[in-house]
Amino acid sequence: MGSDALFGIHGTALEIRSQRMAVLASNIANAGTPGFKARDVDFSKALDSASGNDGTSASAAVSDNMAYRVPVQSSLDGNTVELPVEQTQFAENAIAYKTTLQFLQGRVDTVMQALKGDN
Q: For 14-65, what is each residue's pLDDT tens digit?
């Protein structure tokens, strides 16, 4: 049984969410850096791309679906990071990451029970 059959799209989703978390963390870390341009990943498009039949990896899908964030209010120093927006996006992504991870853990637990013969 391959990992796609066992985990479905959730393994790919976890990888994309992990990479998106790194992008959002970078935005937060650079909130005070003059000229820094905040970026984000369109999760839905990246997941569609990575789960298609064209063999696109999760990393390539993230790169292909990353864009600069358009700020609501421009900063005088050219920085486009809006800390409340980034923190909210990070928190939402972290919750989705944890949910996906819990689902995958449930799948692993089910397989382990089946292999052990537990009821």
A: 999 999 999 999 999 999 999 999 999 999 999 999 988 787 899 999 999 9
Rounded to whole angstroms, how far apart are CA atoms 98 and 104? Answer: 10
* Distance from C-alpha of 5 to C-alpha of 65, rounded to nearest angstrom: 25
Alpha carbons 116 and 98: distance in angstroms, whole number = 27
> How far is 56 from 85, CA to CA, in rounded Å?
29
Say how many domains are in the chain: 1
Host domain of residue 36: 3-116
Report the 3 state secondary structure along 27-87.
HHHCCCCCCCCCEEECHHHHHHHHCCCCCCCHHHHHHHCEEECCCCCCCCCCCCCCHHHHH
